[in-house]
Amino acid sequence: MTVILHIGFPKTATTSLQRVFSDNRDAFSDKGLLYPIVDSDFKQRYLKAFLSKPGAPELKINSAIKKKLNDVKQIVAANPGKHVLLSCEELTNSQSFDVRAPLLSELRKYLRSLSQDIRVVSYVREPSAYYLSRMQEHVKSAGGIVPPEQFKPDFAHSIEQYEKALNAQSIVRPFERDQLIGGGILSDFLHQISDLVNIDPSAFDEPKTNESLPAEAMFVLDIARQSPKAIGKGVSYDSPQSQHFWRQIQRISKQVGATQKPILFESAARKAEMAASDDLRILKSKYGITFQPYKSLAEPAPTDPLTSVETILPVNRQQALAIWGIFTHRANKAMMP
């Protein structure tokens, strides 16, 4: 029996993949692959309890998490011979956690209590495309843009820490449609473990990736953080309210016809690639991974940007200001007595 640990980097269809395994876990179990669900969270985020916060004196796992981990053990024990898939995006969050091999010893102990055979699977992206996707996600819950020259994907370092800590076979794949076997994340993932389980991906719907935020929506989300008085109140950073906020902006974007996928300026793409140069070198030399060149926009960024979003990608200001106008009108109208 093998434990397959999927350390899902953000914006590599991790959630979509997890949902397929969760929704169809009985069918996968019949084929010899367990995807244990022990609570209402199909993303198995209890696994992040094995990560330490920077500067934390010691790892502390509370009783509720310990129960979930024990429940996983019971599911595995009740299904001898079946392989186990664990998938958690937070395991690669090197911004919030100290992801270093010596600090992953408790995770190693736990996984080895399930099986001595452990594999690590991860997907990585072309740096410029990855940077843009992360910034699309960033503006949903925070103001401002991380300058591309300061953004490091940290792919190679994170993968190396898990390889060292778990002494595990590592499978690293490029998250690029033309390089995914079968053209999709599920078919590619199942191919990587086909020596363990023989599962036909065509029996399941290929996961859909999240809808892309247009540049104009990113502009409005950013400017709303800068000018909260324009909508009569501050913009909450609380997760549920933040999600409601950006979804409102996305709906209005569609109403005004702002639906195109954003593209980075050539200068921003080049800076993002340079910041990831170490990652690119290691991914190529160690795993044989290369990416198609990012198709950026060969024109200069505006000299008078209204928001930081405009420093990295072109924005149709007419559409963006139309979205902003509709949103602020509705927000202020809703606050009227």
Describe this structure in words.
This is Sulfotransferase family protein. InterPro entries: P-loop_NTPase (IPR027417). Helices cover 43% and strands 8% of the residues. It folds into 2 domains: 2-126 and 152-203, Rossmann fold; 215-262 and 300-335. It has helices spanning 14-23, 25-30, 63-77, 105-114, 127-141, 155-166, 185-192, 215-226, 239-255, 266-275, 277-287, 317-335; strands at residues 2-7, 33-34, 83-88, 117-124, 169-174. It has a 5-stranded parallel β-sheet. With 337 residues, it is of the alpha/beta class. The model has no long low-confidence stretch (mean pLDDT 92). The protein has 12 helices and 5 strands.
Please summarize what this structure is.
With 337 residues, the protein is of the alpha/beta class. It contains 12 helices and 5 strands.
